[in-house]
Structure formats: structure tokens, C-alpha cells
């Protein structure tokens, strides 16, 4: 597959992804039997993973969608990340954040602490992909699909410059 003159080769097939999602869902169904989790999917990247995962969740649950907006703060030089679109009351809820990929882990740390400060009862993370760098991060990732090498991937919701989200398989940048 070629996107903007970059070559990508198939990395994870739709069958492998489907199988992994079923096994993640089995764990969640078991762990949350006595609860009614609120899944919060982080747009845009996680839309396909969220849809396929939720189809395998057999317990009562809720789902909501949020975006993470990044902006440069005027005073400090840090890149500030803010959650937008969180309309549900999450106080006392058992939240499961759905992410497509965790790279440095910076995004997920921000989101995680925001949920904690809003009074969630518990906050866990379900991510389809995890890159090695994130291991240095403090946030525990309870449900991880695939641990992958530090190479750029696209497809199945993940994009390269806004393109390539609309595939059933996941592709990796060819070196
Ligand atoms: P982090 O804050 O470094 O963990 O960044 C996570 C975000 O970076 C993800 O939600 C993706 O939007 C993006 N990202 C990181 N690695 C990739 C990749 O290989 N392909 C596409 N997007 C990526
Ligand atoms: Mg993302």
C-alpha cells in the first residue's frame, strides 16, 4: 500500500486483529461481570477498534467518544492536551479508555489523570497496539492487543497524515 509516496507492507491481518479483539473482550466480560463499565473511545484513531471490541462485550455497558485536542500554551512551552466532548457524568463510573496505539504514553497519562480527577471509580486502558517507549510510562495498560516494534503503522483506524484509516488490516512503514 502506498500513501503519499511512502510504502507500507501488511503487518497484522484482519484475522489476527479479530482473534485478538475477541480475547481482549473475553477478559473484559469476565473482569467487569459485576459492573457496568463506561467505555470511552479516543477519536479518531480508535473508531474501528472500539466498534469491533464493543460488539464482543456481552455485559451491560455504556460507550462515549472523546477527542484529544493539543495546543501550545502561551506561557509554558509544553504541549497541553485537553479532552473534548466528554458530556457524560463520569463520577463513580468504572471507565475503560479505548485507544488505538500508545507510543510515548504521554497522551494516555494525561487522559488517565483527568478521569481520576473527575472522580471515576476506576480507570483502565484497552489499547490495540503498544510501542516499546510507553513501557517507561507509569500508567498501567490492563488490556493490550499487540506489543509492536517502534515503527510507524497505519490502517484499521490509524492514519498517516489523515490518510489510510479505512482498511481492515494494519500496515507497517517499509524501511
Ligand atoms: P503518545 O502520546 O506518544 O502515546 O501518542 C499516541 C498517539 O500518537 C496515538 O493516539 C496516535 O494518534 C499517534 N501515533 C503514535 N504512533 C503511531 C503510528 O505508528 N501510527 C499512527 N499514529 C501513531
Ligand atoms: Mg490517537
Strand content: 25-35%
Going by helix content, strand content and strand pairing, the class is: alpha/beta
| Count of DSSP-assigned helices | 3
Order of helices and strands: EEHEHEEEHEEEE
Largest sheet: 6 strands, mixed
Whole-number average pLDDT?
A: 92
Share of helix among residues? 10-25%
Walk across the major sheet and give the strand order. Answer: 5-4-3-6-7-8
What does this 3D model show about the protein?
- 30% of the residues are buried.
- With 175 residues, this protein is an alpha/beta fold.
- A hairpin with a 6-residue loop joins strand 4 (62-72) and strand 5.
- The protein has 3 helices and 10 strands; from the N terminus they run E-E-H-E-H-E-E-E-H-E-E-E-E.
- It has helices spanning 14-31, 47-54, 106-117; strands spanning 2-3, 6-12, 38-43, 62-72, 79-84, 94-102, 122-130, 143-147, 153-154, 170-173.
- The model has no long low-confidence stretch (mean pLDDT 92).
- Helix 1 crosses helix 2.
- Helices cover 22% and strands 35% of the residues.
- It is globular and about 45 Å long.
- The protein starts with a strand and ends with a strand.
- The strands form 2 sheets. The chain has a 6-stranded mixed beta sheet, sandwiched between helices. It has a 4-stranded antiparallel beta sheet with strand order 1-2-10-9.
- The site of magnesium ion (MG) has 3 residues, from loops.
Amino acid at each position: 500500500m502506498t500513501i503519499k509516496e511512502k510504502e507500507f507492507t501488511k503487518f497484522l491481518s484482519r484475522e489476527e486483529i479479530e482473534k485478538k479483539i475477541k480475547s481482549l473482550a473475553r477478559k473484559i466480560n469476565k473482569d467487569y461481570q459485576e459492573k457496568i463499565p463506561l467505555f470511552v473511545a479516543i477519536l479518531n484513531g480508535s473508531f474501528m477498534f472500539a466498534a469491533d471490541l464493543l460488539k464482543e462485550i456481552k455485559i451491560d455497558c455504556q460507550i462515549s467518544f472523546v477527542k484529544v485536542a493539543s495546543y501550545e500554551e502561551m506561557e509554558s512551552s509544553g504541549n497541553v492536551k485537553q479532552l473534548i466532548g466528554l458530556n457524560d457524568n463520569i463520577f463513580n463510573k468504572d471507565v475503560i479508555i479505548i485507544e488505538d496505539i500508545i507510543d510515548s504514553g504521554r497522551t494516555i497519562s494525561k487522559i488517565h489523570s483527568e478521569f481520576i480527577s473527575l472522580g471515576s471509580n476506576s480507570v483502565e486502558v484497552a489499547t490495540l497496539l503498544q510501542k516499546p517507549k510507553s513501557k517507561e510510562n507509569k500508567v498501567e495498560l490492563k488490556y493490550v492487543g499487540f506489543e509492536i516494534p517502534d515503527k510507524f503503522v497505519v490502517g484499521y483506524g490509524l492514519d498517516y497524515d489523515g490518510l489510510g484509516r479505512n482498511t481492515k488490516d494494519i500496515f507497517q512503514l517499509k524501511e
